[in-house]
Amino acid sequence: MSVPPESTASVLPQAAPPEAVAFPPKELKKECEDILSRYPTRMAACLPVLLLAQQHYGGWISPEVEAGVASYLEVSDSHIRGLLTFYAMYNTKPAGRHEVWVCRTLTCWLRGAEKLRQTALDTAGVATCGTESDDGKFLIKNMECLGLCEVAPAVFIDGQPHVNVTPEKLTELMEACD
Amino acid sequence: MSNGKITIDGQVLDIVPGKTVIQIANDAGIGVQHYCYHPGLSIAGNCRICQVEVEGWDRPQISCKLQPSDGMVVHTQSEFAKDAREGTMEMLLVNHPLDCPICDQAGECHLQDYSYEVGQGAASSPTAKTNLPKNVPFGSKIVYDAERCIKCTLCVRFCEEVTETNELAMAGRSDHEIVIMTSQGEFETPYSMNIIDLCPVGALTSRDFRFKSRLWFMDFAESVCTGCARGCNVMTGGRDGSFLRMEPRENQAVNKWWMCDAGRLGYKAANVASRLEAPLVRNADGALVQVNWERAISAAGAALKGAPGDVLIDGGATLEEMALANDLAAAMGGKAKYAAATGEGDDFLVVAEKGANAAGAELLGLPRAKKASAASVVIVERGQHITASMRDKSGAVVVFAMDGEHVPDSAQVVFPLPSSAERNGLLVNCDGIVQAISSNTAIGPNNLADPIELIEDILGELDDGYDWRGRDGVLASIRALPAFAKVDFPAGYEAAGVGAGS
Amino acid sequence: MAAKKSASKKSASKKSSPKRGDDGRYPETKILSALFDVKDGWKLAVAKKHGAYKNLEKALKSMSPAEVIDEVKTSRVRGRGGAGFPTGVKWSFVPTETDKPKYLVLNADESEPGTFKDRWLMELDPHLVLEGCLLCAYATGVSTIYIYVRGEYPLSQERLWGAIHEARKAGLLGDKIMGTDFSCEAYVHTGAGAYICGEETGMLESLEGKRGHPRIKPPFPAVEGAFGCPTVINNVETLAHVPSIIEHGGQWFADMGIAPDPDNPRALGSSGTKLMGLSGDIKTPGCWEFEFGITVRELIEQYGGGALEGRTIKAVIPGGLSMPVLTADELDVPMGFDALVKVGSGLGTGTAIVMDDACDMVEACENIAHFFADESCGQCTPCREGCHWMEKIFTRIKAGDGTPADLDLLERLFINIEGRTICALADAAVWPLRSILRKFRHEFLAKMPGHTDPHEKDPHAEDPKASSEPAAVGAN
Ligand SMILES: Cc1cc2nc3c(=O)[nH]c(=O)nc-3n(C[C@H](O)[C@H](O)[C@H](O)COP(=O)(O)O)c2cc1C
Ligand code: SF4
Ligand code: SF4
Ligand code: SF4
Ligand code: FES
Ligand code: FES
Description:
The structure holds three protein chains of three kinds.
Chain A: H1 8-11, H2 26-36, H3 46-56, H4 63-73, H5 77-84, E1 98-103, H6 106-110, H7 113-124, E2 138-143, E3 155-157, E4 160-162, H8 167-175
Parallel strand pairs in A: 1-2
Antiparallel strand pairs in A: 1-3, 3-4
Helix pairs in contact in A: 3-4, 4-5, 7-8
Chain B: E1 5-8, E2 11-14, H1 21-27, E3 51-54, E4 61-62, E5 73-75, H2 79-94, H3 110-117, E6 136-138, E7 142-144, H4 154-162, E8 168-171, E9 178-181, H5 194-198, E10 204-206, E11 219-224, E12 233-239, E13 242-248, H6 261-265, E14 280-282, E15 288-290, H7 293-306, E16 311-314, H8 319-331, E17 336-339, H9 358-363, E18 377-380, H10 388-394, E19 398-401, E20 413-416, E21 425-428, E22 434-437, H11 451-462, H12 470-479
Parallel strand pairs in B: 1-5, 16-17, 16-18, 18-19, 19-20
Antiparallel strand pairs in B: 1-2, 3-4, 3-5, 6-7, 7-10, 8-9, 11-12, 12-13, 14-15, 14-20, 21-22
Chain C: H1 2-6, H2 44-49, H3 54-62, H4 65-75, H5 87-92, E1 103-108, H6 117-124, H7 126-140, E2 144-149, H8 154-169, E3 185-190, H9 200-207, E4 231-235, H10 236-240, H11 242-248, H12 250-254, E5 257-258, E6 270-271, E7 273-280, E8 286-291, H13 296-303, E9 313-317, E10 326-327, H14 337-342, E11 351-356, H15 361-375, H16 381-398, H17 404-417, H18 425-439, H19 441-445, H20 464-468
Parallel strand pairs in C: 1-2, 1-4, 2-3, 7-11
Antiparallel strand pairs in C: 5-6, 7-8, 9-10, 9-11
């Protein structure tokens, strides 16, 4: 029988578990407690607390934050990672100082979304969506319908919607970011 | 009152409350394919391979979730049902790496079986496959391959519902969904390796077993784990003298479908290099030398006549062995006692009592040896019950041991003891359930004598009038004991004298 | 509120759809949208001037919960979230005798492409939404309302939270509402970007802090929903209808729109009004409220301004992305639940996406398949694997590497995906794609030079002219 070579990396023990941040930080404590008070279980607070944490920690959830939130909400860190990788709005990698979402779904596509995406990538100087630009300024994300179809094509920059966007307007908006 | 009837493939069957169609079908011997369904876990209904046709319904139904109703007519083998399953199989294979030739699961892969059965050699498209992580360590014992994984979530549900330790979760979504593990790096549950058995494909493999042997070269036997007094029912697998693996066997009264990792890995003791393979006798120079069985038996008789005393037997030995140990001690005017370790237990399977047959010893009336004391005979399989000091301080002249490490200096005659995977006999578990271990002939050195026969032969040396009884006779005398009057024996052992073994 | 007054309260017999004007124009009816043009209509003070919460007061002080359910049943209002289930019937499934808490989860996930009507309601009249929720909560014995708003709707979240705070301050929410024995809390729960969380059980999982994997049913949410307790789930627009149903009576609502077909038990009618929307290749996209009866063509031509300059309309998906397309020839059908089913499509969310002759249908299919592949939660084999497979096939055809055998393969995949999954996302993926493939088959074949259609008379096409029709189907 031929035995495929087993990469040594996989035999080695895994990297040490990440060191959890102390969560919630002071600034978020009240809001986190407020969120928890709305639900009969701690787990139910996962989505809103993670959105809050993402905002607080520079636009993404690092393994250390993930571990901190997991222990605060008394769920496993794999559960939290399961959420982070399921929902489109979370980032598990550094997300740039500005996050640009370009809608790619049918209406926006009919109204020129592909050009917008290219404009966004060119302006940011990255090749693909989902990776932070080298200067740490932008993260471009391809999003599905943002619910702004009557004013398509639509773009979000840092959580704020922009509508009827043209490539020129998008360049302007992105250039205005610092 | 009847709960109504359901017809499956022409068989009219009783509806059993709480059972879905797949269970009713399986109980009636109508096998319905399934991947994501397991009777011990919640119903996920995601794999869709168990689809059947229900008369009057225009969509195929998943039998694992389907509630039967009176008069329902189900077909598992109609064109419609087969087409539905074939369609699902095609979807499963479109992204499945067809690496059966190097996959450990080959031979027990349900995907391989069913894809053969539904006649899909390969998915009907040259479409490029999705690349996903391979060779991912899940703790130190398990390796995960996301490309082979069919996302049935059995492993995740096991860690959620059975062990409640939640080490695993699904991550990603859509066709990038994979199973991930907690960044703690190791399973908290001592039952993690059950997910390997649960996995219907080769996505979870045992690092321990990887690439050791193709399945079809192995021999299997139904037996019982002797790691603790729970006595989980297992299937032993061996090849060419090596004990390769142990897997749980369903027994609702004992271990349901599961076993602990330590028990599963306990097979390794049978493979140690120092295993004894022939009887030994100490020569004039004080060295233990190999002799034939006859010489060893007569030497043992002589040694015991010179130094009669007690018999100290391993708490994992069988009822038959313990009963004979009792007779042997009586023949010497001594007593038989057993030794068994205690340790940690949990609230699931593992119990603190480690002597797999401690309850049997108690029924036989053997006292438990708590500390070292003198004995003429020591019968020791592994060192966990009869400790080094017990065995060394016993001064035993005749020793039955599985490996050379456990032989005290005082031994004049040494008999090689087959491991529990190589012997036949009965054990009484922590709940008083009598269960059989049975020998897997592909495991262990060739031609080891059965300790039952050896002890009887030694009894013959000590007592000219000894009447050989054989395993069946020994069993009959056990069953005649008042303590066993109300004890149920496993099927095959019901009538005394009908032993399964030699 | 002019429209409310003009709506005749007592009409003995079912009146027909509203009269088109002399110019043939189908009129708007402003009931849900009464405050859309009112400045600051989202503030409690303004909304109250226009009658906000007076219907809640009427119900709490003069009607029993069962009477509220009866009015909703009489109204024959059907769910506006896409499935069209009769709302009053759904409410009556909620057990009255239970010691568990009951929940209302308002489906404000609105992730269906081409759909934005709920956003208009939440942004422009959040108090109407909240009043509808409270009426539902009163009728079904709910004590906690979660409004599940998609994460991409920051203004909706803000306005709803604002409405909740204002209402609580004014004693319209919380303990002993308006001095009655009815107490109820409401919270906004924020989604984080997943279409599948609009599916009601995916939404429940998400609310509980899990991945939005739809649940296998039964049990149904009315019996075992959020946190294992009985739960009502309704769309925003559905519940926004309830205050006016309480004001004018269920019969008033039932008299509007299109009556049920007495000969077809599944044609439950399209009573009342509906927010309808348009987006895509038209001059004036937007959202309007009509009494049911307006046709797709009227909507596009009278309100959408018709095709863009120099273009002709080729295809329309009448309700979001998840419904079969209509060709330009098929637009003279009312935007109604049963009428659209009759022509092989569906009302869905009632917000249409229009494609004109500049749209390449193969590329449109790739775009649509990508959406569903991307948004499949990943649980079920046919959906997880099938949606991606379909996308890859469309990509292949687009690149000129397809053959007619791919079209047969697609047809087989449609069969193996539709109706074989836990939730309806997989069906939603199949419907637009299959209808485009069948109605615009020539566009697919045109990308396969050197191949002729092996099925000269396409055996799959229900409509024989669909596949033989020349390229300019929309030209008329
Ligand atoms: C994939 C999928 C997505 C859905 N998305 C939404 C949605 O965004 N909003 C909504 O109200 N209903 C949505 N639905 C329908 C809901 O499951 C449910 O039928 C509805 O919320 C019930 O409310 P209604 O009866 O008031 O319409 C979706 C269904 C499916 C299968
Ligand atoms: S690893 Fe195996 S058991 Fe786990 S989800 Fe994948 S196929 Fe199922
Ligand atoms: S619980 Fe005990 S008997 Fe069962 S596998 Fe573990 S050690 Fe063996
Ligand atoms: S049909 Fe698709 S989205 Fe729905 S549960 Fe199955 S995999 Fe998830
Ligand atoms: S399709 Fe882009 S916002 Fe709806
Ligand atoms: S076994 Fe029934 S759906 Fe998987």
